[in-house]
Hints:
single chain, alpha+beta, Archaeosine Trna-guanine Transglycosylase, Chain: A, domain 4, six-stranded mixed sheet
Amino acid sequence: MMELVKPPRLWVKVPEEVVPFIAEGKSVFAKHVIDADDEIRPQEEAIVVNEKNEVIAVGKAVLSGREMKTFKRGVAVQVRRGAAEEVKKTCQDYNK
């Protein structure tokens, strides 16, 4: 059954210690990238996941997937929306 399911694409994996910052909408730096999809190209949308493969943010790739894994400086993904931002917005909407 699992052979028929396509694996996710355009993902970037980051360590747990930077998850709170990225979930708040901060950019992903290349030095924090643990792994990334080799098919990512600059300017494409990317999904940022933690080590448990849980989605924590989405944004625009600045580097290719290979560059993200190789480079140790610079922004890898410019985060557009973090998971913590979405939760905060939902709570504010609920309290209106």
